[in-house]
Amino acid sequence: MKQITVSELTTEEKLRLICAEGFWYTVDLGGRLPTVCVSDGPAGLRAERTDVKGEKITVPAVAYPSVQSLANTWSEECAREMGACLADDCIERNVDILLAPGVNIKRHPLNGRNFEYFSEDPFLAGTLAKAYIEGLQTNGVGACLKHFCCNNLEYNRFHQSSEVDERTLREIYYKPFEIACEAKPVSAMCSYNRINGTYGSEYKKGLDVLRNEFGFDGAVYSDWDSVRDRTRAAKAGIDIEFPFNGQNYEKLVADYKAGMLSDRELDACAARVLRLAYTCEQMRKGKKAKTKTETRLQAARRIAQESMVLLKNDGILPLAHGARVAVSGCYAVPEADMVAGGGSSRVEWLGKGFDLSALLAERLGAPATYEKMFMYGNVVGHGAFGADPDKGLYYAASADAAVVCVGTGAPMEYESADRSDMRLPAAQERAIADLAAVNPNIVAVVFAGAAIDMSAWIDKVRAVVFAGFCGENGGAALADILTGKVNPSGKLSETFAVSIDKVPAANTYMDTRVTRYTEGLDVGYRYFDRHEKDVLFPFGHGLSYARFEYGDMQLKPSGDRVEVSFTIANTSQTDGQEVFQVYVREAAPLVYRPYKELKAFGKVKIAAGEKTTVKRTLNGSAFAHWSESESAWKITDGVYEILVGASSADIRLRKKLIIGNDKIAQA
């Protein structure tokens, strides 16, 4: 097929080209241009097709852990592998672009779509998104970086104005997009909301930053039905409107004829659509799935293993071989919607899910009982709903340990609405308290896509495992961790506050149409570093069955860079993985700065009794802040401190250095 240039198109063809064909496809200009098929699915392909009866169905696919769970791995390797597996899923279904990943900052714990996003921290979010994109695109499928930008709540998302100062935009909300753009995603998507009064589909100022400063050279399309005025959107840089909207198209044609859209503006959008079509054609050329479905299911299990976070453990875990365990809670034998979020990212599982009691019995070599005890949601049953709390308590009283599985799921965490509460449903909290009254050896497993308020029951249990939204192979991964077959290595990618009223974003001004980001830079741990008593579990927290000691920290400056090195020793008798975190703080800043900010991280495997040396290089950007007065990144001369920790609240090593005259030196 001969490649077409913009100059070869008629005006009518250009206008039609920048509007989609139906819901999931781009225009092919009568067969002259390759069609691009896009599909949902950050944590599993959600491809819609028509069956033999002419009815729309969602094709079953591998359900991977949610993006929030993926972020809890703190592993670029896991992110890259998940992207590669998703690429194979797409290739088998003739999908050219996966509408993922989303890098919106987790500013507010009640955001209904938090399970689709990586983190409260822009560096962690951007770095993992970059690896995810590389995994997708290296294997022949395009990525779509979304939602640009400041879509941090679902409430009235089609009109809500996120009102944010420029410095906060640059340092917090733009930053993950900037980092992810290093992977050269073929496309990006605008957000529904307004940014400082301007709709995301008309946000030319921001889209110009994306293209002219961050190096993004792909096509930008609208989120579905986010375009209010196709002409304004085109002038702002929205290259394709999804889905096709006849009224918008007719108005676009009329506006062009009236001189409201210039040929230069139209040609720019059309040229990017052409480039997208040919880029996708070239990417998929000769590509076949590299892995079989079973291999991808095993990858989903490994990622789930690395994503689960051991939040609390007084020694009860791992469960001893031969232990009699009572399992309760409907989440122990879940349907897909119970361990996943709802909306456009919902995946039809390939398999039938899991039964945690059966998995534990197999691994422990002892019978394990199961009682649903409470129904999904906030319903307490006694037979009529298939749940018997009395039986659950009897089983627990007779067991060596009781594992209670609680959580949220699609009806509580979903696209288009926010959670009403940070706590678990009352029936679940009651179940935990009642179980603890009959057996002190309680292990709580939480299946959720965002932070949970555990204040009502955290002191009643001996251990807490945050399983997240773990995908269809998450049960096997969880059983591996509970029994010690796998050493937990996940760490929190967001702060768990004591309660919602302790979160700054929950206390800022908000009405029907406006949300003011008055907390500024103080998002997540950047705020809680100065309010430690309000934290249940800090950013970066996660326990292990192994013990790790940090030491021998060295700083080696070289011009405008510094190499940070240190050792991590596994002083236990258990092999494990440790997530290390490197933070930077300015000791005496002349402008407001958070106490510290994450600038490097990694995950290392260390065998029992072994030690490894870690090295990371920080360049000038690690020390810079956005100067509103100069509209530029600026590094202030002065004293800085490098902090190395196992979490944001567990700093193990620190050293100072001095920056002056664009050079870094030892303090």
Shape: globular
Largest sheet: 6 strands, mixed
Strand order of the largest sheet: 11-16-15-14-12-13
- Span between termini: 63 Å
Helical fraction equals 25-40%
What percent of residues are in strands? 15-25%
Number of strands: 29
Which consecutive residue ranges, at least 5 long each, have pLDDT under 50?
378-384
* Distinct helical segment count: 16
Structural class: alpha/beta
Whole-number mean pLDDT: 96
Q: From the alpha-carbon coordinates, what is the Rg to the nearest angstrom?
A: 25 Å
Could you walk me through the main structural features you see in this protein, from its secondary elements to its overall organization?
The chain has about 675 residues and is of the alpha/beta class. The strands form 8 sheets. Strands 11-16-15-14-12-13 form a 6-stranded mixed sheet, sandwiched between helices. Helix 3 runs antiparallel to helix 11. It is globular, with a radius of gyration of 25 Å. It starts with 10 loop residues before the first helix and ends with a strand.
Q: Can you summarize this structure?
A:
The protein is of the alpha/beta class. It is built from 16 helices and 29 strands. α3 runs antiparallel to α11, α11 packs across α15 and α13 (389-398) packs parallel to α14 (426-438).
SSE layout and pairing:
Blueprint: H1 11-17, E1 38-39, E2 48-50, E3 56-58, H2 67-71, H3 76-92, E4 97-98, H4 122-138, E5 142-148, E6 161-163, H5 166-173, H6 175-180, E7 187-190, E8 194-195, E9 198-199, H7 204-212, E10 219-221, H8 230-236, H9 246-257, H10 263-284, H11 293-307, E11 309-313, E12 325-328, H12 356-364, E13 368-371, H13 389-398, E14 401-407, H14 426-438, E15 442-447, E16 463-466, H15 474-482, E17 496-497, E18 514-516, H16 525-528, E19 535-537, E20 548-558, E21 561-570, E22 576-586, E23 597-606, E24 611-618, E25 625-627, E26 632-634, E27 638-647, E28 650-660, E29 663-666
Parallel strand pairs: 1-4, 4-5, 5-7, 6-8, 6-18, 7-10, 12-13, 12-14, 14-15, 15-16
Antiparallel strand pairs: 2-3, 8-9, 11-16, 17-19, 20-21, 21-24, 22-23, 22-27, 25-26, 27-28, 28-29
